[in-house]
Design brief:
alpha+beta, 6-stranded antiparallel beta sheet, about 35% helix
Length: about 210
Amino acid sequence: MKFYSVLLLSYGLSACVANRVTHDVIFFDNAAKNAFEIKTMTLKQERSSIAFENGETADNCETYYQLQKESHLEETVNNMSKGSEYNICEVLKLIEASKGTFSELPDKDSLGHYIAHNLDLREMRSSLYQRTTDEAFTLATMIPTSKLQIGDTVAQFVENNHAFSIEALAAVQLNNNDKPDLILRVVDEHLDGNYRSYSVEVLYDVSFDN
């Protein structure tokens, strides 16, 4: 009888361990996944020449990484419009910086809703920053419900020729705990003007507990 009890206990512990699935990266965007799978080619792929303040230019991810250590991007309209081509460089760099695994699997169908309600726009650079207040600092609190569109992995709106979207591309672990961190692509465009911004941001410690 004692031997039988030990077997049951052993089986129970094994089942618990087996059910605790861990991940080091989960992709929500096929383009990001494909770029990572052929990372060596992605890093060397030729892109539009983008200028830095020190006078140097990058035309692929490898030179882009090197110049980032030495200078900042020139903030001209033409130069910043090329930023979207280099977003994948930022994404790959964050994936490489992943510090371990996470045990909580993000619910893909709820990521757009989570982003709209939890990403603090005061903590990132965008044309919405000046509109934030202590009470309104997420898309859900700043944008009327009728204009805010929420999908499985994206939150977005178009208002007075202003197109803005935040999309989850992947989940990784960047700050040494067991909760996933979302890699986000932010597109911020004023369609009737010259403002164009394309950036990669991180939403840390995603949890659906609350």
